[in-house]
Design brief:
Layout (H helix, E strand, L loop, with lengths): L3 H17 L12 H8 L3 H13 L3 E4 L3 E4 L8 H10 L1 H25 L2 H17 L6 H17 L4 H9 L1 H15 L3 H19 L3 H41 L1
Antiparallel strand pairs: 1-2
Helix pairs in contact: 1-3, 4-5, 4-9, 5-7, 5-10, 5-11, 6-7, 6-10, 7-9, 10-11
Length: 252
């Protein structure tokens, strides 16, 4: 027969599993005590003891009157300087896009292999929201958020908790790279149409359960963004040099 303490350990372990699997995400409120006791099949006192264990481990935080929330599982202490580098050093952005290519192509492959009907419903919702933003007046930050949310929904469908947590730890810098894409590419109609087609291919390959096509679609998408941003940077540098030559010539 299990003791009350053993039941609390089991409760904590099961909630930990849900956090690991990103069912409960950092910053997300846990369901009510009544809902959790029903789902876990335990008493309210055992649930409270389990939550106390999770608080002691730093996995959840409790706010008076607001309930319990999943804690931030990754330190963000390095993100502010990294965001600074993304803004000041183009090389850093290209390095990040290489990381995105590696992680997101594998995430897409796994999502096509392992994704469940529920995963595909969520991916479909994020894709529909992204498509709907094309027909409305949407701010660049909101467009970037929707673009990022679409890619994140595919990653979550990989059912690889460490891959999901790795991308979550890089959330701010990943979102920053998407913002850069929106800023520099979305207002150029041919490039915007290219991105739309790439998103469609990625969506269809993942939800069509075509792993290799999904991997290639994600890889091609990020590579083309990297290439297009590099071409724009080179174009801007040429314009700067030409303008300086013109100014110097006129000055002479």
């Amino acid at each position: 027969m299990q003791t009350h303490r053993q039941v609390a350990d089991v409760v904590a372990e099961r909630i930990e599993g849900l956090i690991t699997d990103s069912v409960f995400k950092p910053g997300q409120a846990l369901p009510s005590e009544r809902r959790l006791t029903e789902k876990l099949g335990v008493s309210r006192s055992a649930l409270r003891e389990g939550l106390k264990l999770l608080r002691a481990r730093g996995l959840i935080e409790t706010s008076q009157g607001k309930g319990s929330f999943v804690a931030n599982l990754m330190s963000h202490t390095m993100q502010t300087p990294m965001l600074h580098l993304l803004g000041s050093q183009p090389r850093t952005l290209y390095d990040l896009l290489e990381v995105r290519e590696l992680l997101e192509s594998e995430a897409a492959r796994l999502a096509a292999e392992r994704g469940t009907p529920a995963d595909f419903v969520l991916i479909g919702r994020r894709y529909k929201e992204l498509r709907a933003a094309h027909d409305t007046e949407t701010s660049r930050s909101e467009h970037a958020r929707l673009d990022h949310a679409f890619h994140l929904s595919i990653c979550e469908a990989s059912h690889n908790p460490m891959l999901v947590h790795t991308l979550s730890a890089l959330n701010d810098v990943m979102l920053s790279s998407v913002m850069t894409s929106v800023d520099h590419l979305y207002h150029r109609k041919p490039l915007k149409l290219q991105i739309d087609r790439q998103h469609a291919r990625l969506f269809n390959a993942v939800t069509g359960k075509l792993p290799e096509q999904a991997r290639k679609a994600a890889q091609h998408h990020v590579r083309s963004i990297r290439s297009n941003l590099h071409d724009i940077e080179q174009e801007e540098q040429r314009e700067i040099r030409a303008t300086l030559r013109l100014e110097v010539g006129e000055g002479g």
